[in-house]
């Protein structure tokens, strides 16, 4: 099943966790985030939406203290700002879809040697998200794979006694993706320095 099909069929829990996971993997872009897990309160609300709006407001407030320049870090902050306060399928689906696309675009910037988007980026990402073969770079391919796997894990465990374990597995995959992006950013910074 394609990424877009998985998002289209997902329940609230899956949509919230997949969106938070996309943001979580992009945290290395934000200053002062080494080792910090500012999205942890949102992860805790993904299972059943309990205290979602309150925790979302607290995370936004905590992260508003960080200065963010333009570019990819600003996109991550904007996606957090766009998170719906309602733990409902329609707004969560729109947010999860937007977070997915932003995460893929950010990873695409790190696939490009100069950090600029490919002229056919929109077409490639649309094809890849639809399950069609697309010539995307290794970071985008890895991010796409993580997004699909997270949605599959969450769908498989929805409504089961192990649904909390599904959210935990999604968090673990997200942490792995964050490490990958952090390593790529470190290599690129050493190459420029």
pLDDT averaged over residues: 88
Structural class by SSE content: mainly alpha
Unreliable runs: none
CA radius of gyration? 16 Å
C-alpha termini separation? 42 Å
Q: Which percent range describes the beta-strand content?
A: under 5%
DSSP strand tally? 0
What is the makeup of the main sheet?
A: none
Q: Which term fits the overall shape? A: globular
**What's the number of helices?**
9
Helix content: 55-70%
SSE order, as H and E?
Answer: HHHHHHHHH
Topology, element by element:
Layout (H helix, E strand, L loop, with lengths): L2 H7 L2 H14 L14 H7 L5 H13 L7 H10 L7 H23 L9 H9 L8 H20 L5 H30 L1
Helix pairs in contact: 2-6, 2-8, 2-9, 3-4, 5-6, 6-8, 8-9
Account of the 3D structure:
The chain is mostly helical and 193 residues long. Helices cover 69% and strands 0% of the residues. The mean pLDDT is 88.
List keywords for this structure.
single chain; mainly alpha; 0% strand
Summarize the structure.
Helix content is 69%, strand content 0%. With 193 residues, the chain is mainly α.
